[in-house]
Specification:
- The chain is an alpha/beta fold.
- The protein contains 17 helices and 16 strands.
- The strands form 3 sheets. An 8-stranded mixed β-barrel has the order 8-9-11-12-13-14-15-16. Strands 2-3-1-6-7 form a 5-stranded mixed beta sheet, with helices on both faces.
- Strand 13, helix 13 and strand 14 form a beta-alpha-beta unit.
- The chain has 2 domains: about 150 residues, Alpha-Beta Plaits; about 250 residues, Alpha-Beta Barrel (TIM Barrel), CATH 3.20.20.450.
- Helix 2 packs antiparallel against helix 3, helix 3 crosses helix 4 and helix 6 crosses helix 7.
- About 40% of the residues are buried.
- The protein binds ligand C2E and magnesium ion (MG) (2 copies).
- The site of one magnesium ion (MG) has 4 residues, from strand 13.
- One magnesium ion binds next to strand 13.
């Protein structure tokens, strides 16, 4: 159909390469076209075949002697023996550029919208099937990303076999003290002091090193382990709130709760039991829940949130502004606080639009009776703007990164919860 060699040719080339020179550096590129499934559906296979043929010809033109093949119905591959990662990236860039001009025939103009995944070898495998799959995983990641070129990253690979053992190891870490809560201070802008802290789970894997929460939390959610993580984080956070209280520091502790936790009708009772066991008042903790977690199964979620609110626990909506809820919907939630997502805050100083959005959220939020926190505050200009806007709390690297508890204690000066950094007052 494309006139190119097929997948078996690529597999044979990879096999031969590593059979004769097992430690040679190579790279496999897989190219996908984002709109192809849609094109097949609306215009049929005849057009999509011609489009693939044209894509193949353009790729071959920039790839020179390198083996370009048809990997699947909708994907092309390029196998680069003796290629360093830099060469692979260069060729990927050239491929993307070669496909930046749309495909034209008769009165039809179609964007290729290409994405390229790169699997470097031997580090990500020398087996042809494994390399093809990993380059494809990277390509699929790139389809949804700003950068159309992506390198295979084992940490985010949803299919990798290590996932299951990773979850086994997470359970082990939960049981044997392998996790830590780090605390990131929240600055009360009106009083200019730190009055609360968000607990963020940290896992240093004995072999892999630090595993980012975005990787293991999502995985724990998918594999049903998140409730154990939440149980652990609640216990650790509430115990810490109790210690701070004993030291004369009235710091409220914020803990992240996931969607799956809200399916657990037993959660309010368990939190009540933890509060009681540690002698902590409900007002000293504030669970954070993302909008999307609530929107998944809103009725069940609202029932659990109501019971928490009835116990005197203040709830916050995390990552506000990037989900799909509306103020009309939020009114039904027993929530006291909105945390504006960091994507609106990071560029606050330079983006008029972001200032308008943040200003509007704060104003509307206040009218509806919510406290408003800005997360991801990285520069003094953003902090000054947030003060001006009348935001209640600020959290971000400017004030402090999340810190282990001993460092956190040191970073809060003189025991009065004053911030270390110059915050403008
Ligand atoms: P989140 O709850 O929105 O937490 C804020 C994230 O923003 C944290 O990332 C924090 O380190 C980061 N951050 C704070 N200040 C700044 C800043 O100024 N700039 C930038 N760019 N980032 C900043 P982290 O610790 O990697 O956590 C990521 C996410 O993982 C959290 O997002 C939360 O959704 C989840 N997570 C972490 N710990 C737990 C947990 O114990 N349970 C659950 N369910 N989720 C957790
Ligand atoms: Mg949070
Ligand atoms: Mg957040």
């Amino acid at each position: 159909m494309t006139g190119l060699p097929n997948r078996a040719c690529t597999e044979a080339a990879i096999r031969d390469r590593f059979a004769s020179r097992p430690d040679t550096r190579s790279a496999l590129l897989v190219l996908g076209l984002e709109r192809l499934p849609e094109i097949i559906k609306t215009l049929g296979h005849v057009v999509s075949d011609r489009l693939m043929r044209e894509a193949g010809a353009r790729v071959q033109a920039v790839a020179g002697d390198t083996l370009v093949a048809r990997a699947t119905d909708t994907q092309l591959s390029v196998f680069m023996p003796d290629a360093a990662l830099g060469d692979a990236r260069k060729l990927a860039q050239a491929v993307v550029e070669a496909l930046s001009d749309p495909y034209r025939e008769a009165d039809l103009t179609l964007d290729f919208a290409p994405a390229v995944g790169i699997a470097p070898a031997p580090e990500h495998g020398t087996d042809a099937g494994v390399l093809l799959r990993r380059a494809e995983v990277a390509m699929i990641g790139a389809l949804r990303a700003v950068d159309p070129i992506a390198l295979y990253d084992p940490v985010t690979d949803p299919h990798r076999p290590e996932r299951l053992s990773l979850m086994g190891e997470l359970r082990h870490a939960l049981e044997f003290g392998g996790l830590q809560l780090h605390y990131q201070p929240k600055l009360n802008l009106q009083e200019d002091r730190i009055d609360s802290a968000e607990g963020l789970t940290r896992w240093v894997h004995p072999v892999l090193g630090p595993v980012p929460p975005d990787a293991f939390i999502a995985l724990a959610e998918e594999t049903g382990n998140i409730r154990r993580v939440t149980r652990w984080a609640l216990d650790a956070g509430i115990a810490q709130a109790s210690r701070w209280k004993a030291e004369g520091r009235a710091l409220r502790v914020c803990i992240n709760i996931s969607a799956r936790d809200l399916e657990d009708a037993d959660l309010p009772r368990r939190i009540a039991a933890l509060l009681q066991a540690h002698g902590v008042a409900p007002a000293q903790i504030a669970p954070e829940i993302t909008e999307s977690a609530i929107m998944g199964k809103p009725d069940a979620a609202i029932a659990v949130l109501r019971r928490l609110a009835d116990q005197g626990i203040d709830l916050a909506i995390d990552d506000f502004g990037v989900g799909h809820s509306s103020f009309a919907y939020l009114r039904r939630l027993p929530v006291r606080e909105l945390k504006i997502d960091k994507t609106f805050i990071t560029h606050l100083a330079h983006s008029r639009e972001d200032r308008i959005i943040v200003g509007s959220i704060v104003e509307l939020g206040h009218h509806l009776g919510y406290r408003v926190t800005a997360e991801g505050v990285e520069d003094a200009a953003a902090l000054a703007l947030l003060r001006e806007i009348g935001c209640d709390h600020a959290q971000g690297f400017l004030i402090s990164r999340p810190l282990p508890v001993e460092e956190f204690a040191r970073s809060i000066q003189d025991g009065h919860g004053r911030p270390l950094v110059e915050t403008g007052h």
